[in-house]
Amino acid sequence: MARWCGYGSTRRATSISLLVALGVRQDGQKVLLAVKNMGGESEAAWRALLDDLVNRGLKTPELASVDGAPGLENALAALWSDMPVQRCTVHKHRNLLAHAPDRLHEEVSADYNDMIYAGSKTENRGEAQGVQSANGGRNAARSPIAWRKQATSCSPSRVSRKASGNRSGHRIAV
Hints:
Elements: E1 2-7, E2 14-25, E3 30-37, H1 43-55, E4 64-66, H2 70-79, E5 85-87, H3 89-99, H4 105-116, H5 121-134, H6 147-152, E6 170-173
Parallel strand pairs: 4-5, 4-6
Antiparallel strand pairs: 1-2, 2-3, 2-6
Helix pairs in contact: 1-2, 3-4, 4-5
């Protein structure tokens, strides 16, 4: 997760990019793992933060929940290619609303909630097809809610289907 903070000794707002890594223990307790001012969210910046965590003893996390920044996703894939990565549903929802007309926000939110709480992939696909049908049969890419591509980034995915082998009991949310 990257945070933009304003501060300054001249009482002027100054923006800096802070890279933040949080761990979540099996009991649900959140642990601050790192806060770094790296000057941006590049893959190299995220990789430096992740390498520091590994050097301090972090094992392969069970899951990473990311905000959608490509630098972070690339750094995670390079370091832990078998680890499942999930797009943060809050960030995805905000992104969808930012690209939808105001008049569709309520519908987008309702459909998105139905999809993220679907009991199965089949149920999720059915919801996406229902949205497509409700939009006059237009393809999903042209409909007001392009769900097929958008919804898949909310589900955990793997570059490889092998088990990650993580037995540390820690997950990482970055």
